[in-house]
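Q: For a teaching handout, I want to show students what a protein-ligand complex looks like in C-alpha cell form. Below are the inputs, and the small molecule is zinc ion. Please produce the holo structure.
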Amino acid sequence: MKIKFWGCRGSIPVPDRRMIRYGGNTTCIEVTIDNKTLIIDAGTGIRMLGEDLINRKISDMDIFITHSHWDHIQGFPFFMPIYSGKTNINIFGCTNSYRQLKSIFAKQMSIEYFPVRFSELKSNINFVEACGSEYTISNHKIKTIRTNHPIFTVGLRIEKNDKSFVFITDNEIMDEKPQTSRTEFVNFCKDATYLVHDTQFKEEEYATRKGWGHSTFKQAVDLARYSDVKNLGFFHHDPDRKDSELDIIEKQFKDYCRDKGYKFSVFAVKEMDEINL
Ligand SMILES: [Zn+2]
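A: Here is the structure, written as C-alpha cells, with zinc ion included.
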C-alpha cells in the first residue's frame, strides 16, 4: 500500500509563504494498492493529483468522500481527469442524512459558481452511497466509522494483510454526548500501522471551539496511545498554523511521547509526504 498526501490543510486553502512547507492545499490523499487508485476526498490537493494521474496514464479510480464540507470537495471541478472521456470514476460517500451525493457535486458546478456544468463532463462518473460499515473497493478492504462532526462524516481503516492505514479527519474526540465514543475509536484504530488524525487545535484554542468537530494534538496522542498504533500523523492543520509553529508542536509531542515511554512515533503530515506500507 502506498499513501501520498496531496493536501493536509483544514478548512480553507492557504497560499501563504509562512505555510509552504506543510502545504496549503485542503484534504486529498491517494492510496495505491496493487496498481489500483483510491482517492480520499476532493479538497484542493486533487488538482495536482489529477495532473499526475494523467501523466501516469491512470484513468480508472475510486474516490471516497468523508463528507461534503467545502474543504473536502472544492477541488473536484479542477480535477482534470473528469474532462476526459477515457476516465472512469466511482465516487463513494454517505450522505443519506442530507442531500444526495450526486446533487452536492452537481450543485457546486452550477452556473452561479463555475463555468462548466456537471452534465457537460465527459468522464464516466458513478455515484455509490456508502453508508455501511465495511466495503471492498478495488481489492481495498475498507472499514468505516462515523466521526463526531456537525454533519455525517466517516473515518476509514484500509487494511492489506497485516498493514493498516487509519484516516480520521474532521473528528472531535469528546466525552460529552459523542456520536461515537472514545472506546469505539480506540477499537477502530487498534494496532494500526499508521493513524492519521485531525489535530486542528491546540489545547488553549479548543476551549472556545468545542462542538466544531475537530480535535487537539493531545487528544490524538491519547487515542494513539490507547490504540497501540505504530505511527501517528497530525492532519487537518489549522489555516492559521504556520510552518514554524507546526515544527515546534511536532517536537513538543515527540519529546512528550518519548518522556512518557510511548512506543509510537509522531509526525506532522506535510503535503507530498509519502508512506509505503
Ligand atoms: Zn475539513
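A: Two things your students might notice: The mean pLDDT is 95. The chain has one domain: 2-276.
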